[in-house]
Design a protein that fits this description.
By secondary structure, this protein is mainly α. It contains two helices and no strands.
């Protein structure tokens, strides 16, 4: 009986060894594929930097300042209209 248990344990150990070797092989092949994908991506980035559009113009957005000034002007106009309405009501 002990001999049979040793044989079964040996079979399980060999099976686990083969399974782990297969998993290591899959992991290595995935890493190899990722490596070549990274090399191709790096080459694409280098080529884009070398031959891509040169001196792209960056337009600065002036709108936030204009919008802020417009809001302040609108607020001043609103205050004037409100004061005019209050004066009209106090007269009438």
């Amino acid at each position: 009986m002990n001999f049979l248990k040793l044989i079964l344990i040996g079979i399980v150990v060999v099976f686990l060894a083969f399974t782990s070797m297969a998993l290591v092989g899959v992991a290595i092949s995935l890493l190899r594929s990722l490596f070549w994908l990274a090399v191709i991506g790096l080459g694409a980035v280098i080529l884009w930097k070398m031959f891509g559009p040169q001196g792209a113009k960056q337009v600065e957005d002036v709108e936030p300042q204009d919008k802020l000034q417009n809001n302040e002007l609108t607020l001043e106009e609103y205050k004037r209209k409100l004061e005019a309405q209050l004066k009209d009501r106090s007269r009438g």
